[in-house]
Structures are given as structure tokens and as C-alpha cells.
Amino acid sequence: MKQKEFNIPFSGLKQGKHNFNYQIDNTFFDSFGYDEFNAANINLDVILNKTSTMLEVDMEASGTVNVNCDITSEPFDQPVNADLHLVVKFGEEFNDEDIEILILPHREHELNIAQYVYEMLVLAVPQKRIHPGIEDGTLESEVLDRLKELQPKEKRSNKEENDPRWDELKKLLTDK
Questions:
Q1: pLDDT for res 1
Q2: How far is the first Cα of the chain from the last one, in angstroms, to the nearest whole number?
Q3: Rounded CA gap, 12 and 32, in Å?
Q4: Labelling 53: which of 82, 100, 127, 140 has CA 20 to 30 A away?
Q5: Among 92, 47, 73, 53, CA closest to 131
Q6: Positive or negative: CA dihedral 60, 66, 67, 69
Q7: How would DSSP label each residue in 101-142?
Q8: How far apart are the C-alpha atoms of 14 and 32, rounded to whole Å?
Q9: Which residues sit opposite 9 in a β-bridge?
Q10: What is the Cα–Cα distance from 174 to 89, expressed in whole angstroms?
Q11: pTM for this one?
Q12: Residue 109, burial from CB neighbour count under 10 angstroms (0-12, 13-18, 19+)
């Protein structure tokens, strides 16, 4: 889905650096059908460097996304910091196969960065989301109490107990 507020009309800009700033909230992720975040508050700074033959786009994002902990399902604010450098060149037809190089047709006059921003931010959030209160022991939760109750009381010793069914197969390995 194209988001018009992320269109950068570069054809009317002079050569040099141009700054753009965006505030990203959960409606941005909802437009992509992404519902992993409860809330988002991210500041995105974009610097567009226009030269006579290409565009360089530097994106830096910082803020927080509210996600559920994978262990306790408690919501918490996960800090997000991400950056992306994109080179935009001009050619015969649109080509975005390369991660860092985008080729736009010569007739284009604006660049939509929404997809790049979306991918950059989603990939900046860790796969395993653990509430900071779990790591430092300050989180009080019924789930954690229940997990402690169900934790094995004694550790098994790693004894070498042979299973007679496997002994015959092990002989085949040594009989060569």
C-alpha cells in the first residue's frame, strides 16, 4: 500500500542535502497489515542528498514500540534504533532487487520510501521479546510464579545407561 506522506518529490529539489522528518505511530504498521505492535512512537529522520546522476537517502529511526513479552505476555516498550542507506539511480525500468540500490525510471519525479521504512523498523525489533523486568528480576507476574512452580525440582544426573536395543546396532559400527 502506497502511503502518500512518504512520497518525496525530488524533481523540484535543488542539488544538495534535504531533510525530512516523520512521526510514525501504529497506523503506519496497520496500513501494511502488521499487527505485532500494540503501539508505536518512532521519530524518523531522512536526509536526501540529490546529485546530478543519483539520489542518496539516509534514514535514521529511534523510538519505542509496545510489544508483548514472549514469556509472560506482559506488554512493554521495546526501544528501536535503526538506520538504512539507500542509493537511487535512474534507468530504463523500475528495479528494487538489490537491497541497497533502487533503480527508478527516468520519467519518475518522486520517491516513496514507505516500504523501506516498514522493513527497516520491523527488522530492528528483536525476534525474541523479553520484558526487561524478567532479566533484572523486578517483574512480578502470575505467569512467572507459575513457571517457577512447574520448574523441575531436581536435576537428572547424566548416567550412561545403555539400552540393549541399541547395543546390537552399535556393534555394526565397530565390526567393519
A1: 47
A2: 64
A3: 29
A4: 82
A5: 73
A6: positive
A7: EEEEETT--EEE-HHHHHHHHHHHS-SS---HHHHHT----H
A8: 32
A9: 110
A10: 63
A11: 0.73
A12: exposed
